[in-house]
Amino acid sequence: MAKIDVIMPQMGESIAEGTIVKWLKSPGDSVKRDEPLFEISTDKVDAEIPSPADGVLVAISVPEGETVEINTVVAVIGDSMDATSTNGDTAPEAAEPVSAPAATASPAAPTPTPTPTPTPTPTPTPTVAPPDPASAPPINPAHATAPAVAVAASATVAAVAAAVGGTPTKEDLLRTRSTPVVRKIAAEQGIDLAHVTGTGISGRVTKNDLLAYIEAGGPAVAPTVAAIPAAPVTPAAPTAVAAAPPTPAGPVFQPGDNVVVEPMSLMRKKIAQHMVMSKATSAHVYTLYEIDCSNIMNTRKAVQEDYVRQHGQKLTITPFVIKAIVEGLRQVPILNASVDGDNIVYKKDINIGVAVALDWGLIVPVIKNADELSLVGINKRLSDLAGRARSKQLKPDEVSGGTFTLTNPGVFGSVVGFPVISQPQVGILGLGGIEKRVKVTDDDAIVIKPMMFTCLSYDHRIVDGAVADQFLTIVKKTLETADFKSLL
Predict the structure, then answer these.
(1) Alpha-carbon radius of gyration of the chain
(2) Which of 172, 460, 469, 483 is an active site residue?
(3) Cα(125)–Cα(153) distance, rounded to whole angstroms?
């Protein structure tokens, strides 16, 4: 049979690269068409990628842990004869596409030295300044004192010059050195990518590079330096950060100490980066409400037996809360919006993300158009998404497009939590556990009620406290008084 290339798939419109997390087959193993071949992780989702054909896995060209662009050949499928010959001759060649760019970067470095004209990136000479008049002049001297950064920049300019057939413009350089996702985040944060050092192939600026730059205070570098031009000591620290983002501070330990050190998983790294970016982006404020769950608990108990018989699954509390959230978003649409620079973008669709805890991390599948679904529809959709999240079968569009998020740490026993907003949303509702507590009624009677604390985290840039309370009041009233039986 003819050899078939296995490529890194594009798992979503805005995704430009993916990371091989795990190979499920080894060279020489037989594979069937649509049988899971390897696991990947992208900015949107983790997924198992099936084999494109029957045959034998001849060679693997991208090892586990490597990040490559979409449409990169990551493996080859052939027949058993191909596998035999590959073991003796072609295995080194199979790995060459991954290592070749890194190998050619070093000899390319001296090429642009006699040409001082490339404008997007500083050369090794300290006196050459980049073209950006707003931020480059103050920080260029510090960049010039880092030879390693200058050599890498020269290599990148040479590569781009060869690609465009002449001296590259700033736009040519940045487009080659970054992905669409990176450029979008940089535009939203007002960051000049020329100041971010890339660690990807051929010096590409990856999403991780940009988030590390933001975490280190990168966006504030240019204004700080411009505001105090007479104090050269002040910009030294920020520019050093831009050249080489530091490792986050952690406990110091010595060899022989009674500790276990494990690297973060790819998913954990992405969660950490997204959480730090969110806290740096939104002005987080929190409001707490206590809700009487008697209505939803009684409704659920009354219909549960018939519901299981008709639909083959249990009715959980979450669909009731989602229905209440939908009602709140309808009446208070600012909680269903996003910030775009100096603009507020109101979303017409109501897409509720629901956090799902996994053994290896956290993922947030999205119930699209939740306002158009009944309680039964929401419950079925939620069960399907959660089940496929745990088996790594979600598609990219099923974890994107959310306009508001619900998280329920209460199932693990917490009384209340203060969740971090999922960007670019402006609100997330956290649920505490439902517990029986003593309450005093309006007529001063002492009763025992199933009570639940809820916490709304909201972005104070566009959501005021009074508006946040208005939203939670609607959620509370809906859960305590709505006729949910009519919504089944």
Answers:
(1) 27
(2) 460
(3) 12
Q: What is the pLDDT of residues 263-281, one digit of tens each?
A: 888 788 888 989 999 999 9
Residue type, 208: N
Tens digit of pLDDT for each residue in 128-137? 444 444 444 4
Task: Choose the catalytic residue: 29, 172, 464, 469.
Answer: 464
Is 460 among the residues known to form the active site? yes
In which element (H, E) is residue 308 found? Answer: helix 294-311
Grade residue 356 by pLDDT with cuts at 50, 70 and 90: very high
H helix intervals, 195-232: 207-215, 221-227
Residue 158 confidence (pLDDT): 46
Question: What digits encode the pLDDT tens for the residues 204-237?
Answer: 677 777 777 877 766 544 433 334 344 444 444 4
Q: Is 456 within 8 Å of 427 (Cβ atoms)?
A: yes
The per-residue pLDDT for range 144-203, each reduced to its tens digit, is 333 333 333 444 444 444 444 455 555 555 544 566 667 777 877 778 887 787 776 556
Residue 10 tokens read as: 């594009």
What domains lie within the chain, and their CATH numbers? Answer: 4-108 (2.40.50.100), 136-243 (no CATH), 284-487 (3.30.559.10)
Task: Please state, in angstroms and rounded to a whole number, the distance separating the CA atoms of residues 205 and 208.
Answer: 8
Q: 36-41 and 30-31 as β-strands: parallel, antiparallel, unpaired?
A: unpaired
Clarify whether 143 is annotated catalytic: no
CB 58 within 8 A of CB 76: yes
DSSP string computed for 79-144: -HHHHHHIIIIIHHHHHHHHHHHHHHHHHHTTTTTT-----SS--SSTT---S-TTTHHHHHHHHH
- At 185, give phi and psi (nearest 5°): -65, -40
What sign does the CA torsion over 355, 250, 40, 206 have? positive
Average pLDDT, the chain: 77
Comparing CA positions, the residue from 206, 221, 60 lying closest to residue 135 is: 221
**Model-level pTM?**
0.61
Flag whether pLDDT at 326 surpasses 80: yes
User: If residue 238 lies in a helix (H) or strand (E), which one and from where to where?
Assistant: helix 233-243
Instruction: Provide the pLDDT for residue 464.
Output: 97
pLDDT at site 169: 55
